[in-house]
Amino acid sequence: MDIAGYMVEVGAQARQAATAVARSTTAVRNQALLCMADRLDGARAALAEANSKDLAQARLDGIDAAMLDRLTLTPAVVDTMIEGLRQVAGLPDPIGEITDMTYRPSGIQVGRMRVPLGVVGIIYESRPNVTVEAASLCLKSGNATILRGGSESIHSNQAIARCIAAGLADAGLPEHAVQVIKTTDRAAVGELITMPQSVDVIVPRGGKSLIERISRDATVPVIKHLDGICHVYVDSHADPDKALRVVVNAKTHRYGTCNTMETLLVDEEIAGDILPLLADALLAKGVELRGCAQSRGLLPELVPATEADWQTEYLAPILSVRVVAGLDGAIEHITRYSSQHTDSIITENYTRARRFLTEVDSSSVMVNASTRFADGFEYGLGAEIGISTDKIHARGPVGLEGLTSQKYVVFGDGHIRG
Questions:
Q1: How far lies 241's CA from each of 245, 268, 295, in Å?
Q2: β pairing state of 396-398 and 303-304
Q3: CB 3.0-4.6 Å disulfide test: which of 56, 194, 196, 267 passes with 236?
Q4: 403: which DSSP letter?
């Protein structure tokens, strides 16, 4: 295959389709999503057959059990994909909303209208259900999208792509509004991220190495986060019961997510009382604790923490533990080591909570809540395309609104500038 030529064609088709999608009505886009859901429901056998090919190849390639689990399209996963499409269809449509209308001294009215980004390129690994999630959010927000899934899920993704294309056609929208790249050649990624004439933004979803490569090589704007080095700080004014619940949940609810706590910070004033309680609960869950010198002075059984531990996203039952000199020490540590994803304080002191919210520069900052809440669904966005730790355009969980932009609109009545 001529990869460069193929990607130019894909890009041109997406750009043309984006115009049709942007001017389509909410009702039409919702109908397309519902038609996609029906098509997936009617293609369960075909989806299972395609997925079995991917799973067979993955086993031959020696892919680990966790990857196999993410790759498998069980009936329950298909049910979730179908339900996800129907839920997105029921979300409010952000496109066309005009806000901030004000009269200027000249007599004109100035406001801002929410509009699609245009063509969104999404690069992701292993999970074929992401194909449906990404397609649905992009379509609902009035965008065309180009999807490049992992090579290990090529057959599953192409089977899903056929259902999506059929659903688009059922609703009268161009099939090229959602395109799933048909080649596993990595050169396609290199082309996709350097096509600003055809692609308006890239969203990478995957491991740190993938996102680093795309951030380094892309000539198209990128919405991304590299790490989820999330902290929970237990303040000297914390309620012990709240601290225990939040800390255990933030670490053990799920280990392999970007919003899982990776470092626990404890105020030195209460460390002797509360750290043993927290450690016992975490150790009972099978979590390995790596502590600073001060925390190991209280709990000698902790593994010594190294400088690298404060900079590591474990995505595993491992937790760094540090005793800090109060709120100043906590903020200093977070400022140095946080990936600006999600950080939380446990305290009953309103002044300290407000200071934490103000001074911690992360995309989500929390008070008395688990970092696991940093999620588009939990934030009321309906769903998310990913998390952004960037400071321009979208920050935090990226839902429908994050896949749009705004333009200024002006209303006059023959007004001229004097």
A1: 6, 18, 20
A2: unpaired
A3: 267
A4: G
The token duo for 409 is: 């609109």
How far is the C-alpha of 101 from the C-alpha of 113, rounded, in Å?
A: 10
Q: Is 211 left (phi over 0), alpha (psi -120 to 50) or beta?
A: alpha
What is the spatial distance between Cα 283 and Cα 255, in angstroms, rounded to a whole number? 14
Torsion of CA 293, 294, 295, 297, to 10 degrees: 90
How many residues are present in the chain? 418
Residue 138's nearest CA partner among 31, 23, 41, 22 is 22
> Is the separation of the CB atoms in 203 and 224 below 8 Å?
yes
CB 348 within 8 A of CB 324: no
- Show pLDDT as tens, one digit a residue, over the chain (418 residues): 899 999 999 999 999 999 999 999 999 999 999 999 999 999 999 999 999 999 999 999 999 887 898 899 999 999 999 999 999 999 999 999 999 999 999 999 999 999 999 999 999 987 899 999 999 999 999 999 999 999 999 999 999 999 999 999 999 999 999 999 999 999 999 999 999 999 999 999 888 888 999 999 999 999 998 889 999 999 999 999 999 999 999 999 999 889 999 999 999 999 999 999 999 999 999 999 999 999 999 999 999 999 999 999 999 999 999 999 999 999 999 999 999 999 999 999 999 999 999 999 999 999 999 999 999 889 988 778 889 998 888 999 999 999 999 999 999 999 999 8
Q: What is the CA radius of gyration of the chain?
A: 24
The two beta strands, 230-234 and 342-346, are parallel
Angstrom distance (rounded) from CA 276 to CA 295? 9
